[in-house]
Amino acid sequence: MTDLPWKVFVKTGNIETYLLLKQMEESVDEELFAQDDAPSSSETQMQSDLTGQVK
User: Where is region (Disordered) located (predicted)?
Assistant: First the structure.
């Protein structure tokens, strides 16, 4: 995402803050990735229209 955690560590030397920011950054990345993988309701509707199934 960004190198903000590293910049904070370089400026402060605080490893705990660096690790906390990295953990938060990874959590945000995981949430964004999960949202990208989940089909939207319009995609689900299009798939059911193509297969003739109702979901």
Answer: 31-55
- Residue 22: C-alpha distances to residues 3, 16, 18, 25, 52 (Å): 9, 10, 6, 5, 46
Tell me which DSSP letter residue 39 carries: P
H or E element at residue 22: helix 15-37
pLDDT tens digits for 2-41?
788 889 889 999 999 999 999 999 998 888 888 776 665 5
**Residues constituting the chain:** 55
Question: Considering the entire predicted model, what is its pTM?
Answer: 0.53
